[in-house]
Amino acid sequence: MPGVFNLSVDEAVKEVREAHSLGVLSVILFGLPQKKDEIATGAWANDGIVQQAARAIKREVPDAILMGDVCLCEYMSHGHCGIVEAAPQSLGAAVASPPAATTEYEIVNDATLELLARTSVSLARAGIDIIAPSDMMDGRVAAIRKGLDEAGLANTPILSYAAKFASGFYGPFREAADSAPQFGDRRSYQMDGANIREAMREIELDLEEGADMIMVKPAMPYLDVIAAARERFDVPLAAYQVSGEYAMIEAAARNNWIDRERVMMESLLSIRRAGASIILTYYAKEAARLLG
Predict the structure, then answer these.
(1) Selected catalytic residue, list 58, 146, 164, 285
(2) What's the whole-model pTM score?
(3) Is 217 annotated in the active site?
(4) pLDDT tens figures, 186-200
């Protein structure tokens, strides 16, 4: 993605400081660990890369609002968002080696919840202000809420990726984060792009489990979902303009097919018009400059 980079901790501090000076008061952190394994150790370790970055940013830019993406795919050796077992092993088993690409497999939902809750507590203790689970495991908001409350972090809000679709628009991010599945795909736990009624049910369930805010991802291909969620749910609503959306605008602009700034702002306006009160976008700094 042009202009978007993986950053070391010191460079991330500089990035947040610059964004903050432009009026972008909130950022979301994703981590790329040095080593990956089958239990996503880097996600919940006290010295994990996001934990290190959160502490460093809070020291230098204490007023910055930090959101922490809670998913395990970037930390798993196989690239899936949960613990993987070869089928038909017991769902109650704890951790197993990932199956070969030719083997039938299953994502072990309930065992994954423990790791998601552990990750959330670790991030909140490191200085993350808002926990943002994006894994799409069933029951993860309730598990995270319980984990945070038991750790004395009851005031830490949850921004749930409540309607995250199994989309082709994630490609550039997955390449940058080295998080593409090594086998299979994520359609068994991410949502069917054809089913808006399922999206409404998923949002409702996450709110019942304790989510404080909800998010639709991707944004522009799912403006109707954003609008339907805005009409139905009276909570802060976020939308994520994902890497593929960004990359398409950038590619078209580089070929002189579109006016880059105009289309960038029009794309953000469309998301806001659909009903999003929060927009996650790679254009945040540029949009802030133009709006300022």
Answers:
(1) 164
(2) 0.88
(3) yes
(4) 556 678 999 999 999
